[in-house]
Amino acid sequence: MSLRWLGVSFAFTFALAAQPAAANQDVTCPEGQAIRAIGDKTAVCVPVPPPANLAPLNAAIGAETAARAAGDAALQGVINAEAVARMAADQELRDSIGAETELRGQYSFTGTALCLSSSTGFRTDIELIPFGIFVPPPGTGSTAVQMSSNTISGVRTFNGNGTGTVSAIVHNINYPPQTVNAVTSFNLGGGSVSTLESTFTYTVGPDRTLIIDGAPTTGFITKGGSRVGWKVTSLNVPRLVGKISKDWKTITVTHEDMAVEQLVNTTPDGVTPFQQFVTDRICHRERTLHKIHD
Fold first, then answer.
1. Quick one: average pLDDT of 137-162?
2. Which member of 34, 146, 193, 198 has the lowest number of beta carbons within 10 Å of its beta carbon?
3. What average pLDDT does range 18-38 have in this prediction?
4. What is the DSSP-derived secondary structure letter of residue 99?
5. Which range is least confidently modeled, 39-48, 162-171, 222-231?
6. CA 232/CA 217 separation, integer angstroms
7. What CATH number has the domain spanning 100-293?
8. Helix residue ranges, H only, 34-161
9. Looking at 128-132, 217-221, 270-274, which range is the least confident one?
10. Is 251:158 a contact under the CB 8 Å cutoff?
C-alpha cells in the first residue's frame, strides 16, 4: 500500500470526524431579535417588539366592570323601590276598600252559650253583680237569679260588602233559679226551642281579624213552657270578634266583652192582653263557622 493512498484515506476520515461538530454549531440571533428562519448554517433574525404594557387595558376593564356593577346595583335599587311602592299602594287600596269583599257566601255555624239572668237587673256593666245579692233594689222584696245554657245552629250569610244576615235555631235549658230575700221559689226550670233572625255588619282586618256587630235579634218560641208563639228579642248583645282561616273557609268567633243584655218576651201580635217581660242577663257565647256556599 502506497503512502499516497494512506494519505487520502486519512484525510477522508478526518473530514468525517469533523462533520458533526460543524452540524451541531449553535445558530443564534443578537439580543432583542428572534430567529425567523435558518439556512446554510445562518439565521435570519428579525427584531422582537418590547412586551406590551397591559396595565392601562386592565385598569380600563376594571373601571368598566365597577361601573357596570354600580349601574346594576342602582337599577336593582330602583326595581326594589318600585316593588315596595307598589306593595304599599296595593295595601293602601286594600285598606281603603277593606277585606270585606273577600268574605262572602254562606257559612253554617254551631255554638254554645251560658247566661246568668237577674229578675231585678245588675248593679253595673262593670261589676256585673245582680241586684239583691247584698241589698234588694228599692221597691222589691226579692231577686231571682237563674242560669241557662243553649246550643245554636244556623246559617250566617256574608254579602261581600260589610253587611249580612243570620238565621238560627236555639235549644235552651233554664236551670232552677235561686231566689234571694224570699221564702219560696216555685220555678223548677225547663227547656225551650226558639228561632232567631237578624242582620249584622262586619269588618275584616288585614290579618283576617273579623268583627261582627249584630242588630237586635228576633225570633219566636216554638216549643217549651207556656209561652209558645211568643216573640223573643235580644238587645245590647256584645259584638263578636274572631279569626278567619287562611283559606277563608273556617271562622271562629266569641264575644270581645261582657255586658248586661236584655231578653224581651212579648205576646204574639193580636193577642190580648198585651204582655211584655224584660229580663237582664249576662252571657258568654262562642261560634264556629264553616263555608257551605259562595
1. 87
2. 34
3. 66
4. G
5. 39-48
6. 8
7. 2.40.160.20
8. 55-97
9. 128-132
10. no
- pLDDT band of residue 86 (cuts 50, 70, 90) is confident
pLDDT over 90 (residue 177): no
- Cell numbers given for 267: 205576646
Nine-digit cell at 195?
Answer: 228561632
d(CA 193, CA 243): 29
Q: Where are the domains of the chain?
A: 62-97, 100-293
DSSP 8-state secondary structure symbol assigned to residue 226 = T
105: part of which helix (H) or strand (E)? strand 104-118
Question: Which of these, 86, 156, 124, 118, lies nearest to 262 by C-alpha position?
Answer: 118
Q: What cell does 61 get?
A: 376593564
User: How is residue 232 written as a grid cell?
Assistant: 223573643
Distance CA 191, CA 151 (A): 12
Cell of 118: 237577674
In the block, residue with C-alpha cell 278567619: 244
Whether 180 and 159 have beta carbons less than 8 Å apart is answered as: no
Cell of residue 210, nine digits: 273579623
Across residues 22-47, what is the average pLDDT?
73
